[in-house]
Amino acid sequence: MEMFLHAAQLALDPWAVGAVGLGTFIGLVFGSIPGLTFTVALALALPITFAMDSIPATGLLLGTYIGGMTGGSVSAILLGIPGTPSAAATVIDGHPMAKRGEASIALGAAVVASVFGGLFSLLVMIVSVNLVSRLAIGFGPAEIFALVVFGLSTICGLCGGSMLKGLLSGVVGLMIMTVGMDQIEGVPRMTFGSISLMQGVSLLVAMIGLFAVPFIIEASSGTGGAADARATRVRAEMPGLRLLMSKGWLMVRCALLGTGIGAIPGTGGAIASFLAYDHARRMSPEKASFGKGNLDGVIAPETANNAVTGGTMIPLLSLGIPGDPATAIVLAGLMIHGISPGPALFMNHATEVYGMYAAIVLAYFWVLGLQLAGIRLFVHVLKIPRELLAAGVLVLCLIGAWSVRNSVFDIYAMGVIGVLAYLLVALRVPITPIILGMVLGPTIENEFRTALMLSGGSSDIFLHSPVALLFLGLAALVIVLQTVGELRLRAYKQKVNA
Amino acid sequence: MTGSRKDLVLGSVLFALGAAWSWAAWTTLSPGFGGGDIGPRAFPLAFGGLLMGLSALFLGVTLSRDGAAAAEAEEERILWGPALLLMAEIGLYGALLERIGFLLATPLLVLAVLALNLKVRRPAVLIGMAAGMTLGCWLLFGQLLGIYLARGSWINLG
Q: pLDDT digits over A324-343, tens only?
């Protein structure tokens, strides 16, 4: 208790509070601009921490991480362009809400859900860091493969009108991610002799192209996201407390899901948010309204992707295993300040660990304050004339695509993928499954191949693991239920038409 | 073109893509060595096959769809001109970026997109947006946030 109070005193020092606030602000800015992720923000923030004490330094890094995870929802809701892959699921219902003139309600709900998810996962982390890390570390390649197959099965729920079109879209996403160097054997694949293609297609660049370019093309015809949103009055109306309280149980479920996914190294916010979205849709009595602006479709992914922040801290602090590139940079920052995560962390650096907990709480308060204060400002983006907004979005997206690897190839890739995405949108093919395929494709292949190598080619490795069997069974159940539902709907439509 | 006909074209194009992809994977990638190694070819080949199978199913479903359902699936008009124009502009921007740098390539792109795609005609808006976006982004990203923005190999304004 004495150590905790000492740590809280250090964390509440004005310099430390300011450092967390600065980090949160940087993270929010980077997270809300497509292409400039919080991983880039963390890489830029890391050198700033060199001259700082350990608690303000870790506070700055954690604030950047948390701000970045939350900021992705701003552009996802307002423009339909996710700032980070974790916010891709938020687009599905958040942007239709903005088109209806409910941008501020969606943004407000996203902020509250994010803060709830983050603080909930922190609580889970504090209470169960040792237990959860032991469970999470038990996830080998077979279990992660099965989990990702389960994640992929959610494509069935993201198809909109036609399941076949959604599946085709998902397979295209999986194919795109096989281009480039094979991560296991290091040989070029599907590059057709091009050196540029050897680096593969960046997920971020593809995401910018998929969401931003159709927006700009549609703006040139006077249709599309911003134009639709401008048709309705832009209101700065916040979601009511009663409304948010009614979503409490959904937030708890999604926060648990996000924390669990985050604790498994190699997964991350995008997988968690898609799984949470699918969970919310399945459990909702208003399934048909998903994809058309259902608030649950915003709350679920935003709760889950922020709950991932606490989840990823579990293996990071207890075992020294970073779950994603962002936490790897946080780990580097901790080590620079002499804090070595691992089993001995709580014995050797208890004050710093408690200081980190306090910094995470502070970061979420900063997020709440900055985002809620900013919502009234953010919604005015929708008042900008669509021509100017489209030109501005294009420049920001090009900077985002360029800054991923400082490569012109990424700009060309953004253009080509974007125009293809526009054609798919015009043909009513949903593009969210492409993103899901791209997010999960590399993991599904790497884990499957690693599992087979470990077992010497025997598929028993999947069948002898209860966890793997559970997730594969759930995936099969989701596919069967969705297919039966689709067939019934088609039969009903035929009956009505007859 | 009706929605049904567009679906037929979409299914055919994706089937052809799946076939070409599978052929390329089969001929250019090596198989595994056995003993648990399935090699770099297995997944691209499987995805290509999956795309062919799903496209064939999609074509079958589209052909068997009755008239009412086809009418219901009426699609929106495809803006081929703006789409191809934007792709060309992005391609040109990429080519110019490395030669004349961010500070010169960006205002040219903004001018082209505003004038050609978005039909903005007011000179004040054109010049204001081109200069404002370029300088604003250069200050924010290049100077304040320290992100590297391209410098030209022909002309370098920093």
A: 778 888 888 888 888 888 77
In degrees and rounded to multiples of 5, residue B111 shows phi and psi of -60, -45
The pLDDT value recorded for residue B68 is 54
Residue type at position A274 = F
Q: What is the 8-class DSSP label of residue A346?
A: H
DSSP A75-109: HHHHHS--SSGGGHHHHHHHHHHHHTT-HHHHHHH
Residues B94, A221: C-beta atoms closer than 8 Å: no
Q: Could you tell me the residue ranges of all domains in chain A?
A: 2-497
Interface A:B, Cβ pairs < 8 A: 183
User: Within 13 Å, how many C-alpha atoms sit on residue A83's CB side?
Assistant: 26
Q: Could B145 and A44 be called an inter-chain contact, meaning their C-beta atoms sit closer than 8 Å?
A: yes
- Per-residue buried b or exposed e for A293-328, using 16+ beta carbons within 10 Å of the residue's own CB: bbbbbbbbbbbbbbbbbbbbbbbbbbbbbbbbebbe
Residue B73 in 3-state DSSP?
coil
Length of chain B: 158
On the question of pLDDT at A419 being above 50, the answer is yes
- Dihedral sign computed on CA atoms, order A34, A330, A114, A138: positive
Best residue of B9, B23, B43, B99 to probe chain A, by most A CBs closer than 10 Å: B43
Please name which of A115, A29, A117 lies closest in space to residue A72, comparing C-alpha atoms: A29
Element holding A213 (H helix, E strand): helix A203-219
Q: What is residue A438's three-state secondary structure?
A: helix
Nearest residue to A72 (alpha-carbon basis) of A268, A296, A312: A268
Tens digit of each residue's pLDDT (9 = 90 or more) over A219-272: 887 655 444 544 445 555 677 888 888 999 999 999 999 998 888 876 778 889
Among A354, A374, A355, A377, CA closest to A366: A374
- Decide: B102 and B138 in contact? Cβ < 8 Å: yes
- In the block, tokens 């800054």 appear at A403
Domain locations in chain B as residue ranges = 3-72, 80-144
Per-residue pLDDT at B59 exceeds 60? yes
In chain A, residues 175-194 whose CB comes closer than 8 Å to chain B? 175, 178, 182, 184-185, 187, 189-190, 192
> Is the complex ipTM higher than 0.90?
yes
